[in-house]
Amino acid sequence: MGRAAPPQPGEPAIEPGGPRRAAFGFVFVTVAIDMLSIGIFVPVLPRLVADFLGGDQVAAAAVYGLFGTAFALMQFFFSPVLGALSDRFGRRPVILLSNIGVGLDYVVMALAPSIAWLFVGRVLSGIASATVATAFAYIADVTPAEKRAARFGMLGAAFGLGFVLGPAIGGLAGSVDPRLPFWIAAGLSLLNAMYGYFVLPESLPPDKRAPLSLARANPLGALTLLRAHPQLTGLAVGYFLSLLAHFLMPTVNVLYLTFRYGWDERTIGFLMAVVGLAAVVVQGGLIGPGVRLFGERAALVVGFGCGIVGLVIQGLAPVGWLFVLGVPFVSLWGFANAATNSLMSQRLGPSEQGRLQGANASLNGIAGLLGPGLFSQAYAFALARPDATMPGPGAPFFVAAGLLVLAAVVAMWATRAERSPAP
Predict the structure, then answer these.
(1) Distance between CA 42 and CA 169 in Å, rounded?
(2) Is 187 inside a domain boundary?
(3) Any idea where the Major facilitator superfamily (MFS) profile domain is (predicted)?
């Protein structure tokens, strides 16, 4: 076996056996800040858009929809680019430069003198925050196969933590000044980049890097990677269906809870905090021990099964407290996505991890383009038929549950040879 090439200048060497604990902490914080920065805008960005449009709420709703579409498109196109760049030049420079780019972009948004500049900022944030794919590739580089599901679960906890804290911070800061949340997000991203410069070692040795090419750095080329292995293809299909089902929540939850149970903003905000905390508990505390005991395939079964049960409960619930009973089941859905990411990463070598995670991020971008339309139309169709007893206003939840049934079938087929935990 050949000797690994020495680290390049400016690349701290990764310690034998894995990176320093601070390195994983940095990656965790990076993902949490990315998610927090997305959530921090929720209370204030629609208001800023409406202010720029003279308070026209109809026009603001249409333009705000374009903001979301543009963000998803940038994630779709640029996640594979950053993933391929990290396979070629290493994870460290891509993650650090992305942190800097995100921070500077939030400064642009904080200073935006017009809605056009605000839109440009949103586009740039979609490009720079595509670094989540590189963060997942970093974890795949430095984590043994049998421990990846637990580490991916921890990154899922970072998602939940960011979504819990983001809207809360955004609401408080936005009450002082609607541009203050952007300054807070900028400061967090730039400080994290400075911290990472000192603590983040490179995880991909030079001898394991892959050449950069157009085929590797575009979304269609990245998605062809998912056809490299029959099991990988099946897992990717199941993962996409699960991602698509996830867009039920940001699309119709607020409308559904307001219409069916008469909940106000405060009650809905409290529920969202509970959902986020439940996700943190499951992904940060339960996935690791669960996968060690029973293996990734069992985690897939548990995750998809609990997600289906939880969504059906919430779609049928005639009163609010029954809807809340579905939250623990929906939170356990997180087992499936962490296990899927782990199984997919095990089917490719180190030089392909960035490309794999870029492809997965592109799948999320496609889901982000299709999901809102699918679930909003399902909800509108259900409300347009008030005389029907089924499916009623819970129709979008049954659509999402159906997608999870398909995801479970495909994933079980793809992993049919894996019936026991890894030794």
Answers:
(1) 10
(2) yes
(3) 23-419
Examine residue 423 and state whether it is found in any structural domain, yes or no. Answer: no
**Residue 379 belongs to some domain of the structure:** yes
> How far is Cα 340 from Cα 299, in angstroms, rounded to an integer?
9
Total number of domains in the chain: 1
In a domain, 6, yes or no: no
Peptide bond into 391 cis (omega under 30): yes
The one-character DSSP state at 44 is: T
pLDDT digits (tens, 9 = 90+) for 114-149: 889 988 988 888 788 767 778 888 888 888 877 787
CB 234 within 8 A of CB 411: yes
Which long-range contacts does 259-268 make (Cβ < 8 Å, 24+ apart)? 259/383, 259/393, 260/393, 260/394, 261/319, 261/320, 261/323, 263/320
What are 267-311's pLDDT values in tens digits? 877 787 788 788 888 887 888 888 888 888 889 999 999 999 999
- Where residue 73 sits, what CATH number does that domain have? 1.20.1250.20
Q: Range of 291's domain? A: 21-198+215-414
